[in-house]
C-alpha cells in the first residue's frame, strides 16, 4: 500500500508515491467517489502528475522517475518529490484545516489543494485531471467556466477544479512548464472564493501546517515511541468526522483482505466495537476534546429516553443505520478483488459485544472529573443509557450472535460476545454504586458474577487447554486475549497464561497473529489481522513478559508502509499490507501498545 493519507475531518484522499490521487470521496467520507483509480485505473477517475526528462534527451530513451514521499513533520500534509535527469518537483497535498473563533469551530471544507513547486530544472510536467463523479456511474461532464476554472458535473453533483494557470482545455492532458509554483484546488459544491488560487493555496498551507503542529504539541508523549504515536494520532484525527465526532474504520471500501479475494468490505462507517479503544487512546494522549466529541456522537445514537430493542454494530458518520450492500460491477476492483461493495450488511447483524464496548466508553463520564465539571455525568439520559445497555446485555447474553468477526452464517455462543456482556453488567454495577443506585448495583453485580462463572466454565476447553472462540469450540481466537484487559480475569491466572501460550502456538506466524484459522463463511483466513498482534503484545505485557512484548512490537512496526501507515491485514508471504487502508483501529492499537510499553522503559 504505497499511499499516504490526507484529510481534514470532513473527507480524505489517498495519494500514491508517484503523486497520483488514487482515492477520494467528496463532500464527506462516505460520499460517492470522485477519484477512484485505486478501484479501476481506466474508469475510476484520475488526478496524476507526470514529470518529463529535460528536453534534448535522445528520442526513445526511457528514464525512470525517482520518487520520495513523506509527511511534513508533525502534520497531515503530504510531500512527494519527483526527480528525473536533473529535473525535479515537489508536490504538497493537503486538505485545509484550521481553528476559527470558538473552541470547537474549525475550517474543514470539502476541498483539497495540490501545490507543485519546481526544485531543479526547469521541469516540465503533464497533469491529468479527470474526475469521475458518483462512483463513475453515468457521465461526468467537464465545462470550462473561465480560464483556470472548470466545473465537473454528474447529475446534481458538482465538483470545481481550479488552477493558478489559465487553463482552457481540461478534458485533455495539461502540459505545464514550471518556472514557478503552480496550485490546483478541487472543491465540492462551490469553487474556492477569490481569484488568486496560488496565494490562497500558500496561505492555506501555512495555516494548516500551524494547526497540525499545534495539535501535536498538545499530545502527551512518553519518552519512547514518539514518532509512532504522533503518526498514529494524526491518522486517527484525520478519520474523525468533524461535524459529529464519529470515527470511521477506514476511508476506503473494498480493499480485499486477501489479494484478489472476495473479502471486500466498505469500512467508511463508525463501528461501535472500536469505541472503547478509541477513547482509551485519545485519553492517553490527552486529547480530551476529541474524546468528548466522540461521546456526544455515541449519545446521539440514542436520541430520547424510549426503550430500544437493540444497538447496531455500526452506524453512518451522521448516526443513521448503514445501508445494505450494493455492488459496483463496472469496476475491476483493487488487485482484482471482487465485488466492489457500497454499504455493509453487518448493519443487520446481532453482535452482542457492542453493549460492553459502549458501557466501557460511557464509564469515564461517571469517573473522570473533567466530564463531571462539564456537567455531562449529571445528564439524566446518561444513566438511562447505562440502564438500557445493562438490560440489553442481560437479554442477549444467553443468545447466539454473529460474533466480533461478523460471521454471516455461523451463529454461535461466541466467547467475546459473552465477555463483553459481562463487561456491561460489571461496569453498570460500578456506575450504579457511584450514583447511589443500590438496587441496580446489587442486581447487576450478582448478574455479573453469574455470567462470569458461566464464561469461565463454558469458554474454557480443557481438551485444548485454553479459552476458545465459542462455548465448546476447539478453535483458538485472538479476541480471548482481551479478557485481562477488561478486568475479567487476572492476567497471570494459569488459565490466561495457558491461553496466551496456546494462542501463540496456533495463531502466531512470523511474529504476526491471525484472529483465527478455522474455516469461516469465505474459507480459511490467509493473512494476519494486524490489530490482533497488538492484543498479544498487551496480553504479554500484562502477564509480565515485557521482553517478548517489546520484540513483537518492534517486529510488527516493520510492516508499516513508507510513511508509517498500516492497513487491516498483512500478507505473511509477501509482507504486503492488505485490507482497507489506513485502518484506524490498527493505529489506535499502536498508540495503546506504545503507551503501555513506554511505561517499562528500555526501548532500543
N/C terminus separation? 27 Å
Percent range for β-strand residues: 15-25%
- Structure annotation, total helices: 14
Strand order of the largest sheet: 6-7-8-11-17-15-14-13
Main beta sheet strand tally, sense and closure: 8 strands, antiparallel
Tertiary shape: globular
CATH architecture of the largest domain: Alpha/alpha barrel
Number of domains: 2
Question: Could you walk me through the main structural features you see in this protein, from its secondary elements to its overall organization?
Answer:
By secondary structure, this protein is of the alpha+beta class. It has two domains: 3-217, Beta-galactosidase, Chain A, domain 5; 226-598, Glycosyltransferase, CATH 1.50.10. Helix content is 32%, strand content 20%. It contains 14 helices and 28 strands. The chain has an eight-stranded antiparallel beta sheet with strand order 6-7-8-11-17-15-14-13, with helices on one face. Strands 1-2-3-4 form a four-stranded antiparallel beta sheet. Strand 24 and strand 25 (512-513) form a beta hairpin. The protein is globular and about 75 Å long.
Amino acid at each position: 500500500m504505497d499511499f499516504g493519507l490526507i484529510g481534514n475531518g470532513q473527507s480524505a484522499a489517498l495519494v500514491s508515491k508517484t503523486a497520483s490521487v488514487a482515492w477520494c470521496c467528496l463532500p464527506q467520507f462516505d460520499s460517492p467517489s470522485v477519484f477512484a483509480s485505486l478501484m479501476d485505473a481506466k474508469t475510476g477517475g484520475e488526478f496524476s502528475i507526470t514529470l518529463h526528462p529535460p528536453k534534448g534527451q535522445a528520442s526513445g530513451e526511457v528514464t525512470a522517475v525517482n520518487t520520495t514521499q513523506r509527511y511534513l513533520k508533525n502534520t497531515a500534509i503530504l510531500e512527494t518529490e519527483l526527480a528525473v535527469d536533473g529535473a525535479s518537483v515537489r508536490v504538497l497535498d493537503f486538505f485545509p484545516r484550521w481553528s476559527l473563533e470558538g473552541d470547537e469551530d474549525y475550517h474543514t471544507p470539502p476541498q483539497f489543494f495540490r501545490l507543485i513547486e519546481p526544485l531543479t530544472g526547469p521541469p516540465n510536467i503533464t497533469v491529468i485531471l479527470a474526475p469521475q463523479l458518483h462512483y463513475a456511474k453515468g457521465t461526468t461532464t467537464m465545462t470550462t467556466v473561465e480560464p483556470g476554472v472548470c466545473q465537473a458535473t454528474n447529475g446534481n453533483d458538482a465538483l470545481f477544479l481550479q488552477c493558478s494557470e489559465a487553463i482552457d482545455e481540461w478534458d485533455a492532458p495539461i502540459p505545464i512548464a514550471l518556472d514557478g509554483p503552480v496550485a490546483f484546488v478541487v472543491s465540492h459544491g462551490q469553487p474556492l472564493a477569490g481569484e488568486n488560487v496560488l496565494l490562497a493555496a500558500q496561505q492555506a498551507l501555512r495555516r494548516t501546517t500551524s494547526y497540525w503542529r499545534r495539535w501535536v504539541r498538545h499530545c502527551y508523549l512518553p519518552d519512547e515511541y514518539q514518532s509512532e504515536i504522533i503518526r498514529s494520532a494524526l491518522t486517527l484525527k484525520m478519520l474523525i468526522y468533524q461535524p459529529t465526532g464519529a470515527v470511521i474504520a477506514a476511508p476506503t471500501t473494498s480493499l480485499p483482505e486477501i489479494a484478489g479475494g472476495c473479502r471486500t468490505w466498505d469500512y467508511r462507517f463508525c463501528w461501535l466495537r472500536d469505541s472503547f479503544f478509541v477513547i482509551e487512546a485519545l485519553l492517553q494522549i490527552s486529547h480530551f476534546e476529541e474524546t468528548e466529541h466522540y461521546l456526544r456522537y455515541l449519545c446521539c445514537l440514542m436520541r430520547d429516553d424510549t426503550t430500544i430493542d437493540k444497538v447496531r454494530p455500526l452506524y453512518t458518520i451522521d448516526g443513521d443505520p448503514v445501508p445494505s450492500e450494493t455492488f459496483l460491477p463496472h469496476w475491476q476492483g483493487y488487485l482484482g478483488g471482487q465485488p466492489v461493495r457500497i454499504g455493509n450488511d453487518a448493519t443487520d447483524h446481532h453482535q452482542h459485544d457492542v453493549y460492553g464496548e459502549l458501557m466501557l466508553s460511557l464509564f469515564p463520564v461517571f469517573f473522570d472529573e473533567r466530564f463531571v465539571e462539564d456537567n455531562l455525568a449529571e445528564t439524566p439520559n446518561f444513566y438511562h443509557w447505562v440502564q438500557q445497555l445493562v438490560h440489553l446485555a442481560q437479554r442477549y447474553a444467553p443468545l447466539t450472535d454473529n460474533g466480533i468477526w461478523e460471521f454471516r452464517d455461523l451463529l454461535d455462543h461466541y466467547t467475546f460476545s459473552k465477555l463483553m456482556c459481562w463487561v456491561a453488567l460489571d461496569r453498570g454495577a460500578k456506575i450504579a454504586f457511584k450514583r447511589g443506585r443500590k438496587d441496580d448495583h446489587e442486581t447487576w453485580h450478582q448478574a455479573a458474577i453469574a455470567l462470569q462463572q458461566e464464561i469461565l466454565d463454558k469458554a474454557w476447553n480443557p481438551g485444548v487447554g485454553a479459552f476458545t472462540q465459542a462455548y465448546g469450540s476447539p478453535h483458538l481466537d485472538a479476541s480471548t486475549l482481551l479478557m485481562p484487559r477488561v478486568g475479567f480475569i487476572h492476567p497471570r491466572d494459569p488459565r490466561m497464561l495457558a491461553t496466551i501460550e496456546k494462542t501463540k502456538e496456533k495463531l502466531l506466524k512470523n511474529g504476526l497473529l491471525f484472529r483465527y484459522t478455522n474455516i469461516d463463511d469465505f474459507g480459511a483466513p490467509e493473512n494476519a489481522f494486524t490489530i490482533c498482534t497488538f492484543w498479544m503484545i498487551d496480553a504479554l505485557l500484562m502477564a509480565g513478559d515485557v521482553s517478548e512484548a517489546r520484540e513483537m512490537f518492534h517486529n510488527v512496526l516493520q510492516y508499516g508502509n513508507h510513511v508509517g501507515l498500516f492497513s487491516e491485514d498483512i500478507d505473511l508471504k509477501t509482507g504486503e499490507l492488505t485490507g482497507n487502508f489506513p485502518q484506524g483501529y490498527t493505529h489506535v492499537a499502536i498508540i495503546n501498545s506504545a503507551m503501555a510499553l513506554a511505561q517499562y522503559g528500555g526501548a532500543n
